[in-house]
Specification:
Keywords: Membrane, Transmembrane, Transmembrane helix. The protein is mainly α. It has six helices and no strands.
């Protein structure tokens, strides 16, 4: 066996291992959502969509963009309308970043796929450019974990700073104002 063949074998085994670990983490993510939020049910989707609908009701697009910018930059506002939009945006973002397994699973899936590209690129007939295409994925995979931590800290800061701007209506489940039929459960 040549050295390239041994390297390709190791890359393939590592790639399969990372992808299998990602599948395990995705299963743990589903389990976490079921235990902590009623997982994947209409109630969970209604919570996230309710926050989104409430945000669309109270803030026009310019104010929503400004609220997202305020959360990202960890700024504080004194405007009550913007403060409420910031609080709703932070609550919505926190719901997306709370799951401890989801981002890790995506990072492992990206790393496994990138290793597979490097493996394919080292083949005798495949262009070496595929190996180079896998390299950015290997660099970006750990960044997904840092992005989650950064988003959680930013949303917690925004929620603390803008707690006085919450409206009692924001704590109740969102109800549609029109007479459209309720969504079907699957």
């Amino acid at each position: 066996m040549t050295v390239i063949h041994e390297i390709r074998t190791l890359l393939m085994v590592a790639s399969i291992g990372l992808i299998l670990a990602a599948l395990v983490l995705l299963a743990l993510s589903i389990r976490w959502k079921r235990r902590n939020r009623g997982g994947g049910t209409w109630a969970e989707r209604a919570l996230v969509n309710g926050l989104r609908h409430r945000l669309h009701e109270v803030a026009p697009p310019d104010l929503r963009r400004q609220a997202a910018r305020t959360v990202r930059r960890r700024e504080t506002t004194t405007d009550p309308g913007l403060g409420r939009a910031v609080h709703l945006t932070a609550r919505m973002w926190r719901l997306h970043a709370e799951d401890p397994y989801h981002h890790a699973a995506l990072a492992l899936l990206l790393a496994g796929t990138s290793l597979n590209l490097v493996h394919i690129g080292l083949g005798p007939t495949d262009p070496l450019a595929l190996s180079l295409a896998g390299a950015p994925g290997l660099v970006l995979a750990p960044c997904l974990l840092l992005i989650r931590r950064l988003r959680l800290s930013r949303t917690e800061t925004a929620l603390e700073q803008h707690a006085p701007f919450t409206h009692p209506e924001d704590e109740t489940p969102w109800e549609p104002t029109d007479t459209s039929p309720p969504p079907r459960e699957r």
